[in-house]
Prior knowledge:
The chain is an alpha+beta fold. It has helices at 53-61, 68-77, 79-91, 96-182, and strands at residues 3-7, 10-12, 15-24, 35-41, 48-51, 65-66. The chain contains 4 helices and 6 strands; from the N terminus they run E-E-E-E-E-H-E-H-H-H.
Amino acid sequence: MATKIRLQRHGRKNYAFYPIVIADSRAPRDGRFIERIGSYNPNTNPATITLNFERALYWVNVGAQPTDTVRSILSKEGVMLMKHLQGGVKKGAFDEAEAQKRFDAWKAKKQQAADTLKASMASKQELDAKERLEAEKAKNAAKAEVVAKKKAELAAAKAAEEAAKAAEEAPAEEPAAEEAAAE
C-alpha cells in the first residue's frame, strides 16, 4: 500500500484549514485516512502549524511520501532534517547525541530568527501607530485652529453688530433726551 502524507481540505469557502493526514494514495482527498498527525491553518498571520513530531518522523522513516506542500511544512518543522540526521547516525558518520545536538542548534537558531521577526513586526506596528497618532494630532490641531478662527470671526461680527445697534439706539435717544431737557 502506497501511503501519502497530505492535506485534507476543511472549512468554508475562502476560509480553508487543512488537517495533515496519513492516507492511502488511492483514497479521495477528503476521504478515508490512516492517522491525523497535525493541522495547517493559513488564515492566521503567520500561518499556524500544529504537528505531532514523533508520528510525522515515524511515517517519513517508514516510507510515507509527503506531497509538496506537506514536505515544505515538515521541513519548516524540522522533521526532514531529523530524518537526514538519523540517516547519518545509521551510516556511522556521528552518534545519536551529536545528531540531537545539531538538531537542537538548528531549532534554537530558527526560534531566534522567528523571535527577531516577531519583535521587528511589533516595533514596526508600534512605530506605525505612533506616526498615525502624530498625524491625527496634527489634523486635530489644524481643525481646532480653523474652528477657533471661525469662532473669533463670528464673535467679532456679533460684537460689530451689537455696536452698530447700540450706535443706532444712542443717536435716537439723544434727541429724545434733548427734547425732554428743552421742555
